[in-house]
Amino acid sequence: MEVAVARAAGAVKGASTDPASTDPASGGPLAGRAGRLAAVVLAIAVIALAVTASWLGLSVWRERAAADRAAGAEQAARQTAVNMVSIDYRNVRQGVDRVISGMTGDIKDQWATQAKTIVDTATKNQSTSTVQAVRAGVVSADGDSAEVIVAVTAVTSSPKVKQAAPRYYRFSMDLERVDGRWLVSRLGLVP
Prior knowledge:
Number of helices: 4
CATH class: Alpha Beta
Largest sheet: 5 strands, antiparallel
Structural class: alpha+beta
Number of domains: 1
Distance between the termini: 100 Å
CATH topology: Nuclear Transport Factor 2, Chain: A
Order of helices and strands: HHEHHEEEE
Strand content: 25-35%
């Protein structure tokens, strides 16, 4: 009974009789050296958690950026291959211009040099070629360069060819990112 009266009296005066008080003089959980050690360990844990979360976030961002670059290179290679194989003698000049606009460097110069021959041949033969299927895959990609393989199936016809048959093309393309655009810088046929 005396303990209960003493506690009640302490509560009236504003004094704490709780043994788990945070007041260091009371011997609570943050008292003395043990309390300071707990605070330091907690601070280190929070900092380590923040550093780990930042590192993981940066890793995810880098992986996403690399995947976006690879997807952009694949799409550019796919479109260039479709442009190369899609020929219609009625508008072949525009088709050749689309191909050239997706290229850079020596390959662009080669296509520009051969453009007249391509236009003349397609017009003379009244050739048309329609893409049926396209598949592409990135072989490698880093920063501003990539290698992509593209497979295209197209049906080519002309007045001389009575029964159009599918043709299969496989291209190996090196691409470079120039002013934010992926452009083909090297082109080869894959056997």
